[in-house]
Amino acid sequence: MKKKLIIIIVLINVIIGYFAFNLKPTQVNFDANEEDIDLKVPSNFPKPVYDPKRNMLTPAGFKLGRILFYDRQLSLDQSISCGSCHQSGAAFANFERPLSRGIKGCTGTRNAPVLFNLAWQREFMWDGRLDQLELTSHNAVTNPCEMANEMNQISAKLQGLPMYPPLFKKAFGNPKITSKNMMKALGQFMAAMVSANSKYDKHVRNEQGGAFSKEEQSGYSLFKQKCSSCHKEPLFTDRSFRNNGLETRSTDKGRDSLTHRKSDLGKFKVPSLRNVEVSAPYMHDGHLASLEDVLAHYDHGVKANPNLDPELKKNGRLGISLNSQEQQQIVAFLRTLTDKEFINDKRFQTP
């Protein structure tokens, strides 16, 4: 009887602890310093797609966006923030979680994508259904399996908090809180997330710290031969939508959910491979746990999907021929794409 009582008490404490963590007031610092932030184009990068004239980056706007990104009050039950599923240590993907999880433990159908170099993207989300960076936050806030809230409800709530109207006035010249300015602030924060200081970047720019090992150089050569048709340098994506043979019959419509074309069924955006070392698990459904699993898939796991990309059915075989040594060398190269300066940049972490 005593043992049962102890077990019950422990379970009650676990439950209380869980709700205390998930429902505790937000822990962001509203008095954080403003950052002199700018969308600087790295010398080895193309011109950004993002038009700063439409939503000019300012220190006050960036600060507000940073606070909103980490504020749990944007979710219906105050249990999660944008930063709950997009963590800096995972290059703003969801660390070791295959599928994103929203309020009340609701599990989504897709892996949370990384957030960086968004200023060079034309379309967003795995299926590319959004064409403006600012709209991605709107989707997360209102999705019933993510933050499950309503924009007018959030605006009214934040308007009633003493810390927010002055922040909006500083950022946009008006203390009135609108959904448009909320999305603009979040857009500024995310547009400023530039990752371009990996070992690879230093290598191609002939900077100190960019010398490749023999294995990394071999992997780079193999990568250019076998992977670069989809993962083009320097962004390491060609921004296209492709089917890479994860299933014989696609269960997720992918690009077809927007275009309603059978030829787009099961096609997803080619993700950037920058910071891929830290952003596991992989693919739109997060079912591949490691880089080794990914390369094994391309070597011998590609399925004969009706919409399989032509790059994966050449020379009478499915996939890309990669022996174990070649796979190891490519993994070594992929690790040179890790940008530790970006991952550890305090400006993008919880204020």
Give the SSE map:
Elements: H1 2-23, H2 59-70, H3 82-85, H4 133-142, H5 151-159, H6 164-172, H7 179-191, H8 199-204, H9 214-226, E1 241-242, H10 256-259, E2 268-269, H11 291-301, E3 313-314, E4 317-318, H12 324-334, H13 340-343
Antiparallel strand pairs: 1-2, 3-4
Considering the chains and any ligands shown, give keywords for the structure:
2 domains; 13 helices; two-stranded antiparallel ribbon; 351 residues; globular; Cytochrome Bc1 Complex, Chain D, domain 2
How would you describe what is shown here?
There is one protein chain. The chain has helices spanning 2-23, 59-70, 82-85, 133-142, 151-159, 164-172, 179-191, 199-204, 214-226, 256-259, 291-301, 324-334, 340-343, and strands at 241-242, 268-269, 313-314, 317-318. By secondary structure, the chain is mainly alpha-helical. It has two domains: 28-193, Cytochrome Bc1 Complex, Chain D, domain 2; 199-340, Cytochrome c-like domain (Cytochrome Bc1 Complex, Chain D, domain 2). The chain has a two-stranded antiparallel ribbon with strand order 1-2. It has a two-stranded antiparallel sheet with strand order 3-4. Strand 3 (313-314) and strand 4 (317-318) form a beta hairpin. It starts with a helix and ends in an 8-residue tail after the last helix. The model is unreliable at 5-25 (pLDDT under 50).
